Amino acid sequence: MAQEFSIGVILVNKDKFLLLRRFPGHWSFIKKSYQEIENKEDFAREICKEQGINTLFHVKNFAETEEYFFKKHGDTVHKEVTFFIFETTEETITLASADYMAYVWLEYERAIARITFKPEKELLKKAYDHLKYNK
User: Fold this and answer.
1) 124 close to 17: Cβ distance less than 8 angstroms
2) Total domains, the chain
3) What's the pLDDT score for residue 38?
């Protein structure tokens, strides 16, 4: 079975979370696959910079891994995505990847409602609780 690894970023601006609309239409966080990297947090920062977000503050003590399976060219792939939280003061981003069709900043309740997949809704809840109780 093939295996893929990605880094994801839960990007926060004040009380709003960045969601990106991916082809074919699901709403999610910024994610990017990697082959080999030296430092996951630095790679997460680079992913944000590719989207035009340069002012970034890493929220410490939060790293959550999501695992799932999907089909790619008829083969089952095991995917593992490690998510980090970053805060920013910037609101405008550049959709640097053809994978992304649109973006939106939403407050927690609206973001939970917009996210397509249940595991990422649960991930947002963990991130929200972490931000709420670790300020």
Assistant:
1) yes
2) 1
3) 84
